[in-house]
Design goal:
Chain lengths: 174, 209
């Protein structure tokens, strides 16, 4: 990677690391794993950066790579083991404890509900409702058809509704 | 809760995110270092493979070149010991006290030239070709016959009587195992050894025990 390319990558990494980590967190429900996934993604992108910068949309490419890293991660044997509890997030001592508790409860409820949604459906939900991608953009990111995105969205929402009716009771995806 | 509320909940879930646990600049440096290391390893591996391939190629070329043949098992015993028996067996007309003219030796080296011709060298590290087997008319010996025997090819050569009236016949046993036995017989007067007798002599298994 040439110096100019490296500078552009550095700029990209600075700008996108946070956003990628948030998406990764909604996918995996763990900030630490989310950081690992983002680092894996960026490391992979660095190797192919000159090509990515010239021929692809780097943000779209990063999203796709992140999803693959996460799906690969889920296939690893040690990830199949049962999940027993979470490491508590550090508290913000300046915030209102009641408000903090409410935020944490909402987040946990959402993450618990997302956790029962199959991985690819969860990816569709995150891309469509968190990253606000269109059906077409989601299909491109996941490398599948528009019809698949629509059906996966509908199934994902149904799974969410079954698991936690309070989280969502949405109209059918069009 | 509709899609918009789901969207809001997702954004709310990541709102209180902890600070980034890694530095993108440091990650970029690490990625660059890793790429350079990997390229160095790949380069070294490729260089090693090229060298190994080169060594194998050179080895293969050397096998058909000068000096490749392992020490021969042919003529393991001094000719003086073998000769009386062998000469009596194969060259009955040769007087026992005259076998000094007989030379039976292994040929130290054979060289397959790029054009396919086989050159034999009688002495190690000495480039004096005993003969060029495929250019018989250009050497001292004239190819008379080529006989295929089990495990070998035997070629017989003759040189007509020269100015001194001496004549010479030779036979070379070229084993498929790369062993070579050379026998020649020269003398004056009428020839007392036929090419066939020399073939039988160099084909005698006793020479390769």
């Amino acid at each position: 990677v040439r110096k100019t390319d490296e500078d552009r990558f550095r700029e990209f990494a600075r700008a996108q690391a946070g956003l990628l980590r948030r998406s990764a967190y909604l996918l995996c429900g763990d900030w630490h794993l989310a950081e690992d996934l983002v680092q894996q993604t960026l490391m992979k992108m660095y190797d192919a950066w000159p090509r990515i910068a010239r021929r692809h949309q780097p943000v779209s490419y990063a999203r796709k790579t992140l999803l693959r890293c996460w799906l690969d991660e889920r296939r690893r044997p040690w990830r199949r083991s049962e999940h027993h509890g979470d490491v508590p997030e550090p508290l913000d001592h300046d915030a209102d404890p009641a408000r903090q508790h409410q935020v944490a409860a909402t987040r946990d409820e959402l993450l618990d509900a997302l956790a029962v949604v199959p991985p690819r459906q969860r990816a569709v939900l995150v891309l469509r409702f968190f990253e606000s991608l269109s059906v077409e953009e989601t299909a491109t990111a996941l490398g599948c058809s528009v019809g698949t995105v629509k059906s996966q969205t509908a199934r994902g929402l149904t799974a969410l509704r079954d698991r936690a009716p309070a989280v969502t009771s949405t109209k059918e995806d069009r | 809760v509709n899609e918009n509320q789901l969207r809001e909940r997702m954004h709310a879930a990541v709102a209180g995110e902890p600070p980034l646990g890694f530095d993108p600049d440091e990650l970029t440096d690490r990625a660059g270092k890793r790429q350079r290391q990997r390229r160095a390893i790949l380069g070294a591996t490729a260089a090693t493979l090229v060298l190994a391939a080169g060594a194998v190629t050179v080895g293969a070329v050397d096998q058909v070149g000068v000096g490749s043949r392992p020490p021969s098992q042919a003529c393991p015993q001094p000719m003086a010991t073998l000769a009386p028996t062998l000469i009596r067996r194969h060259l009955p007309l040769v007087p026992l006290n005259g076998y000094d003219d007989i030379v039976c030796t292994e040929v130290d080296y054979q060289y397959v030239a790029p054009d396919g011709r086989i050159w034999l060298y009688r002495e190690k590290n000495r480039h004096d070709p005993a003969t060029d087997f495929f250019a018989d008319n250009k050497t001292a010996y004239h190819l008379v016959d080529e006989t295929t025997v089990p495990g070998a090819i035997v070629r017989t050569y003759k040189e007509p009587a020269n100015d001194t009236g001496a004549w010479l016949r030779a036979a070379v046993w070229i084993g498929t195992d790369n062993l070579v036995v050379w026998a020649e017989f020269s003398g004056h007067g009428s020839p007392r050894a036929t090419p066939q007798q020399l073939v039988e002599l160099v084909s005698d298994p006793e020479l390769r025990k």
